[in-house]
User: What shape does this take?
Amino acid sequence: MTTDTEEPTLTVDELAARAGVTVRTVRFYGTRGLLPPPVIGPRRVGHYGPAHLSRLALIEELQHHGMTLAAIERYLEQLPADLSAHDLAIHRGLVASWAPDSAEDATRAELERRAGRALSDEDIDRLAAMSVLERADSPDAFRVDPGLLALGVQLLGVPIAHETILAARTILLEHTRSAAHALTTLFKDEVWGPYRERESDPEHVKAMKSLSAHMQPMVVQALVTAFQRSLKEELRAAFTAE
Assistant: This one.
């Protein structure tokens, strides 16, 4: 697992602004146990960090998929307790791949406010290469995915060439499309086919609706776990051999 190096420094107001939610929402998620408590600093002021921001983005994305708070609680409980902000951002990014219309309009100033830092033209180019944002008609207008932005900004500090990012994006798209096609075929043959034969059964219809509402996040979580394990094994093998 990766570890967070950035200390919790955000107030609840700053966290809410960065996440694009209200302070009331942050506090509500905290009372439900969906968001870890803040780190209490001097004068009893609570401070939040990258993991809180990433978890907020993941919760909002799961709600976007129609999951209830109870279902989100169960989903989060299945995640390892030591997931870093980076790992949570990866989970959110893969969940977001099921919802391509989640992007929002933003000006350059709004983009930088959400990112929590100034962004150079080179930064914008790199974020575009990572599919975090798209340029609109105006030079000061963008279509940005708020959740992917947090992960993209973290990766700006990694010394990876722009061309390497584009090549990695091509590899990921190729293999994720292949996996999506295989999973869709499996679902169609093994689940949807039998359902069509029993669609007059009220209980089976109810079960299918429940499966449809929760299948995507479950599949994404399985893909994330499998990919992380495979990548760890490949990296260990590659660098051990040298």
